[in-house]
Amino acid sequence: MTEKHLITAASCKLSARLFNLLAIASTLLAALMFSLGLMIGDKKLAFLPMAMSLPPVMIWLAASIFVYASIAHHPDLTVRHYNKWAGYRYYAVVGTLTVFSNDLAHLPTGWLGVWGLFILTLVPWASWDIWKAGREPWRDIEFEKEVHG
């Protein structure tokens, strides 16, 4: 027996934008926490900005795997395309900065430079993808799903 399911155009558009939206939100939240840590910390608490800023990045890194996987087999190939490139971009930026951040932090800009690079690399590019996804001609998708039981 089969059941008909409908995925609306609005749902497709949201799915195409979701990974990028959450990546931007977690990045900006982490940067905000870093800034807050800089304001309230002193020389004795030099670790505070990093200790405050890493949890949003780590939580989103773990949660992003589930978001990515949930969209990876979407019936609309355009949604899959946006999800795939959002994942590639985020994991590449986070992975690269994980490897090089300690070395970059020794430059005159310090950890502010690392966070600036993170934001300047990820946010405009992801925002561009969100904008592009909003201009796609989304359509409703109807498909049949096998029901067991």
Element string (H = helix, E = strand)? EHHHHE
Q: Based on Cα principal axes, name the global outline.
A: elongated
Number of domains: 1
Largest sheet: 2 strands, antiparallel
Beta percentage is 5-15%
Distance between the termini: 9 Å
**Structural class estimated from helices and strands:** mainly alpha
* Low-confidence segments: none
Work out the number of β strands: 2
Mean pLDDT: 93
Task: Report Rg.
Answer: 19 Å
Spatial strand sequence of the major β-sheet: 1-2
Task: Describe it.
With 149 residues, the protein is mainly alpha-helical. It has one domain. Helix content is 73%, strand content 8%. The chain has 4 helices and 2 strands, in the order βααααβ. A two-stranded antiparallel sheet has the order 1-2. Helix 1 packs antiparallel against helix 4 and helix 3 packs antiparallel against helix 4. The longest helix is centred in the N-terminal third of the chain and has 32 residues. The chain is elongated and about 65 Å long. The termini are close together.
Which features characterize this protein?
mainly alpha, elongated
Task: Summarize this entry quickly.
By secondary structure, this protein is mainly alpha-helical. The chain has helices at 9-40, 48-71, 77-104, 110-134, and strands spanning 2-7, 141-146. It has a two-stranded antiparallel sheet.
How does the SSE layout of this entry go?
Blueprint lengths: L1 E6 L1 H32 L7 H24 L5 H28 L5 H25 L6 E6 L3
Antiparallel strand pairs: 1-2
